[in-house]
Amino acid sequence: MIYLLAINYYSSQLIAKLINSISPNQVVEYQIIIVNNSPDEQSIQDLKTDKVVILESGENLGFGKACNLGLNWIYQQNQKAIVWLINPDAYLLPEALEKVPALFQNHPELSILGTIIYTTTGEIWFAGGEFIPKNGAIIPKTIDNQNSNIPYLKTDWVSGCSLLINLQKFPVCPQFDPEYFLYYEDFDFCQRYAKQGHLIAITNQIGVVHQPSAITGKNAFLKFQHSTYSYLLTMEKYTSKIVLLLRLVRLLLNAIYLIPLKPKVALGKLVGISLYLRRVF
Q: Glycosyltransferase 2-like domain location, by residue (predicted)?
């Protein structure tokens, strides 16, 4: 069984497009789980069918906590399932779902698998992630270096926009760190489980299309507040203190520079830095 897990935050029209990207003649057994982070959005209820389950969060939990709610529910239903975490502003390419069971059946060593992610113009938006601890660089790749005959390549991290989890590889239900409200929770998720010995990989045999920032781009202040806080938290967890300090100073100087040019972006970064420092001290 494959469970597609999407987090809704005022994005019912986008999720409808995601649902419609799955062929009605689909032979693969699947179910779509929507965690509703916007309880006052009534239109999301129109999507409920025998294939679509809606879990009410009661409030905006943020991405990580909402994912955990969905993962826990799925784990209770089927501890050997495949969970496909997918953004509401993404949709499947033809035959993407059909390829999932065979890929995991042929490669049971996989724990967390990312897919190639394309933009709406057909360009590669994500093809694996690299991490350089000595300088804190978190690098998303936008070039597909995989030979088409290679089922997957090991990578440092994969995007939560389209991330498959093989539940039977986990003795307890995998969880995102609830400290992350938004951004970098996928990176942290991969880093934590890689350290536990899980294989993190990317495949070019499965693809989705993503509309970047279709949701989070609506509010620049909150976008940069959350991304700045999460970024500094990530630097704290996975780099040295000197790298963290240098990155923090660079963020601060950049925010000050942007005040007259992009005040909402600058203010978001400054608030994110402030929240992080308040947490530390």
A: 10-128
Rounded to 5 degrees, φ, ψ at 156 are -75, -35
What is the C-alpha separation between 256 and 251, in angstroms, rounded? 9
Place of tokens 């951004």: 183
CA dist 129 and 187 (Å) reads 9
Torsions phi, psi for 38 (to 5 deg): -130, 80
- Sign, CA dihedral 151-156-160-165, equals positive
In sequence order, the 6+-apart residues with CB closer than 8 A to the CB of 48 are 54
Burial 51-61 (b: 16+ CB within 10 A, else e): ebbebebeebb
Q: What is the pTM of this model?
A: 0.95
Per-residue burial over 152-187, b = 16 or more CB atoms within 10 Å of its CB, e = otherwise: beebbbbbbbbbbbbbebbeebbbbbeebbbbbbbb
Paired strand residues for 84:
4, 164
Q: Flag the least confident range among 12-26, 142-156, 166-180.
A: 142-156
Q: Which residues of 235-273 are buried (b: 16+ CB within 10 A; e: fewer)?
A: bbebbeeebbeebbeebeeebeebeeeeeebbbbbbbbb
Tokens coding 67: 């994912």
pLDDT digits (tens, 9 = 90+) for 209-252: 998 655 665 788 999 999 999 999 999 999 999 999 999 999 99
Please say whether the beta carbons of 205 and 151 come within 8 A.
Answer: yes
Q: How many CB atoms lie within 10 A of CB 9?
A: 22
CB atoms within 10 A of CB 41: 14
Residue linked to tokens 């990155």:
247
